[in-house]
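Design review, sub-item: ligand-bound model
Attendees: FS, YL, KQ
YL presented the inputs for the FE2/S2 (inorganic) cluster complex:
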Amino acid sequence: MPKLTVVGFPTVEVESGKRLVLAIEQNAGVDVLHACGGNARCTTCRVQFIDGEPARMTVAEQQVLAAKGATGVRLSCQIVCDHDMTVRAISRLTGSGRPDPGPEPNAQVTPPPEWISAATSTAV
Ligand code: FES
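KQ shared the predicted structure:
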């Protein structure tokens, strides 16, 4: 099983294929935000990768990051845990002033993912 380390928290094992946003919340026990319910709209689920950044991303992630001018971050709702990863949870309920982290994301990546290379933004 892939290992997930959220900086400042113990390393945990994650079922392969689980959405990173759910792994951070449920496995690592970290209060990551997911204000749009994991639909690549809000970017509140953003994380910084320390190690193991995926080489692919969804078109939805690429588009919303570009639209918001966000660089150096990835959307945990658009990533599946299929290898070891170390991330920094930079967008958490704690200190956000929000009443809750947002609607529970579905088990599967939504919207239905269309994968491209994170480096070149070309289809893979
Ligand atoms: S973009 Fe909203 S939860 Fe990921």
